[in-house]
Amino acid sequence: MDTTKRLWWGLSALLIVTFAIMLWMGREIHQQAPPLPSQIVTTSGEVVYTRTELETGRQVWQSFGGQQIGSIWGHGALLAPDWSAEWLHKEALAILEMRAQDQLGMAYDQLGADDQARLQAQIRPELRTNTYDPDTDTLVISDERARAIDVVAAHYDGVFSDNPAMADLRETYALRENPIPDAEHRRLMSGFFFWASWATVTERPGSDITYTHNFPHDPIVGNTPTTTSFMWSMFSILLMIAGIALLVWHYAVWHGKEEPLTPPKTDPSLAIAVTPSMRAVGKYFWLVMGLFLVQILLGATTAHYQVEGQAAYGLPLADILPYTLTRTWHTQLAILWIATAWLATGLYLAPAISGHEPKFQRLGVNFLFVSLILIVVGSFAGQWMAVMNKLGLAHNFWFGHQGWEYTDIGRFWQIYLFIGLMLWLVLMGRALWPALRRKDEMSSIAGLLFLSVIAIGLLYAAGLMWREHSHISIITYWRFWIVHLWVEGFFEVFAVAVISFIFVKLGLVRGRSATIAVLFATIVFMAGGVLGMFHHLYFAGTTTAVIAVGASISALEVVPLALIGLEAYDTWKNGRATPWMARHKWPIMFFLAVSFWNLVGAGLLGFLINTPIALYFMQGTNLTAAHGHTALFGVYGMLGIGLMLYCLRGLKPHVVWREGLIRSSFWCFNIGLGLMAVLTLLPLGVLQLEANMEHGYWYARSAEFMDRPIVEVLVWLRTPGDVVFAAGGLLIAAFVASLWLPQRRSDALEGGEVGNEA
């Protein structure tokens, strides 16, 4: 059996085992999720909430934005509190206040440290003891706790109404006035907040650890890091070091053993015949630029809401476009424009790889393009209607705002998008089929490319696995099948296969060598990328097994990044291999930027928050945002632009590029992204980390913390990075537009004649 076949067998075995473990862990999560009782009653028999009321309360929370305004269990937006953490702290303070008055006749905050500590020790057993009865499906709480619930619920009734006394707090949270007009809806949403906080402080049966592994940090109620978090964090670091050592050894033994390949004298890409379907892909890049520019504008608006919570430079923007919507659309558009660039690259390269243009391929490409526009416009309109209270709870799940970060669109639009991805899969399969059947040195790369296409399409079905009233832990599990496995799994495979094809097609790398390298890289990516998903679920109502698997395997995600510098050198070397490679300078430069941000954003900042003990204190802070921005745009956005530029070079071979526009945009992107991270996200995240460790997670996300002068200064310091980055977006959009404008043409291209004009 040759090396290629062995690698294919190894990859197949790895995928079978890892996905089997994924499904088994999903069953475990389903069985061990925090119970949602049929009713919550007091010891005196009063019904506080029913399951139906709790579920309706969650619907209310989702309909006005859900995870896009504040967060639950650390998942969601960074502006506004984590509602589960804040409720927990306010409920504990309400009980402490009642006991201080009853026992000592004084306000709690007037007591000495000894008396406060004694009262805290009193209330912890009541809060942490599990009083849920599975036989009757009932949660029993004390009358005292029920009174505390009334106190905290009254606070949230004021926050989410038009109560003038809470106007400043709404502005700090970037909530528009009267975001939830119905008083009953506000009461029911408070019930959901109570249940979410109950799961964070209530110990599992037979354990001294809560349903969320003592997250969030709050010393008053005894929520501190668990021994499990420390132990598996240490183990993950050791496993990462061992993985890096093995990979470096493999690289030293096998890399660079072949004789260098002599590049061809002319650019082979000029001989690629541009088919009608490939030419039809051009409009996708117009859409990419349109979505990208809107995303940048919404990102700047979202960031500015941290300063003016209900306005933009005095204009009452929140009346028509509140923070909830700007952040929803900003995060969704990031995924949409990057995915569109990658889909378009696949549609362009598939006929180029096989040399085959299937019948009606152009029609399919055009139909998919129209469908993408309809999905964006339709889903965004539904979300606006939901947040502005014009849709109603009955239709929100299907056509409005689901409230789950990155998977916010209504179920109808999710199904439509899934159908679109299936169409993309069919279009790719039809075009690649001759290359898959040839069994030459490129067939394995084509096979991996098609495997990633299948996985990208089918994995989106995970977004259809939950129902409107599914448990939040189960929804979180399925949601990260998309968020994680798309980005840190099969998009990686897609990218490696596409870039390898490009270098093989350009005659810079041998096909067999590229095939072996791609298969090996895929195995390395998948070894950590699949089961590494569980590091998102440490505190999502899951068991210790999730921490064990997530911590151990997610550490392997960092392993391939150990060789980023060497891979970047290979890319740079290929870019300088022959004079005609100057035509492909800017795609290569963006690929180099991918390597840099892969090391910094995905590697350093990713591992910073990856271990259980680190994430316990950093989840839902600006340190996670620093990782998110630098990894999502720095890696996948830069790669999307690089792939787009490669396709545009083939679509417009005669046009002389205005390289000044690309050069300026390239440096604006890198400098702007760096300024965002260094001037705002990292220092603000460090301040939140300190606040969390000293006081608790509730304080790191509180209005009191966010109103500090230093925080306002750091938020304003985001402006230089945003402006520079936005300039990069305008410049790259101007460049793309220039390719379709009348301009000077070059008919005698250095390195060879042009094959087909696009």
From TrEMBL:
<keyword id="KW-0249">Electron transport</keyword>
<feature type="transmembrane region" description="Helical">
    <location>
        <begin position="723"/>
        <end position="741"/>
    </location>
</feature>
<keyword id="KW-0679">Respiratory chain</keyword>
<feature type="transmembrane region" description="Helical">
    <location>
        <begin position="7"/>
        <end position="26"/>
    </location>
</feature>
<dbReference type="InterPro" id="IPR054309">
    <property type="entry name" value="NorB_cytochrome_c-like"/>
</dbReference>
<feature type="transmembrane region" description="Helical">
    <location>
        <begin position="334"/>
        <end position="353"/>
    </location>
</feature>
<dbReference type="InterPro" id="IPR000883">
    <property type="entry name" value="Cyt_C_Oxase_1"/>
</dbReference>
<protein>
    <submittedName>
        <fullName>Nitric-oxide reductase large subunit</fullName>
    </submittedName>
</protein>
<keyword id="KW-1133">Transmembrane helix</keyword>
<feature type="transmembrane region" description="Helical">
    <location>
        <begin position="365"/>
        <end position="386"/>
    </location>
</feature>
<keyword id="KW-0472">Membrane</keyword>
<dbReference type="InterPro" id="IPR036927">
    <property type="entry name" value="Cyt_c_oxase-like_su1_sf"/>
</dbReference>
<keyword id="KW-0813">Transport</keyword>
<feature type="transmembrane region" description="Helical">
    <location>
        <begin position="478"/>
        <end position="504"/>
    </location>
</feature>
<feature type="transmembrane region" description="Helical">
    <location>
        <begin position="669"/>
        <end position="689"/>
    </location>
</feature>
<feature type="domain" description="Cytochrome oxidase subunit I profile">
    <location>
        <begin position="323"/>
        <end position="678"/>
    </location>
</feature>
<feature type="transmembrane region" description="Helical">
    <location>
        <begin position="586"/>
        <end position="609"/>
    </location>
</feature>
<feature type="transmembrane region" description="Helical">
    <location>
        <begin position="545"/>
        <end position="566"/>
    </location>
</feature>
<feature type="transmembrane region" description="Helical">
    <location>
        <begin position="445"/>
        <end position="466"/>
    </location>
</feature>
<feature type="transmembrane region" description="Helical">
    <location>
        <begin position="284"/>
        <end position="307"/>
    </location>
</feature>
<dbReference type="InterPro" id="IPR023616">
    <property type="entry name" value="Cyt_c_oxase-like_su1_dom"/>
</dbReference>
<feature type="transmembrane region" description="Helical">
    <location>
        <begin position="413"/>
        <end position="433"/>
    </location>
</feature>
<dbReference type="Pfam" id="PF00115">
    <property type="entry name" value="COX1"/>
</dbReference>
<feature type="transmembrane region" description="Helical">
    <location>
        <begin position="629"/>
        <end position="648"/>
    </location>
</feature>
<dbReference type="Pfam" id="PF22085">
    <property type="entry name" value="NorB_cytochrome_c-like"/>
</dbReference>
<feature type="transmembrane region" description="Helical">
    <location>
        <begin position="230"/>
        <end position="252"/>
    </location>
</feature>
<keyword id="KW-0812">Transmembrane</keyword>
<feature type="transmembrane region" description="Helical">
    <location>
        <begin position="516"/>
        <end position="539"/>
    </location>
</feature>
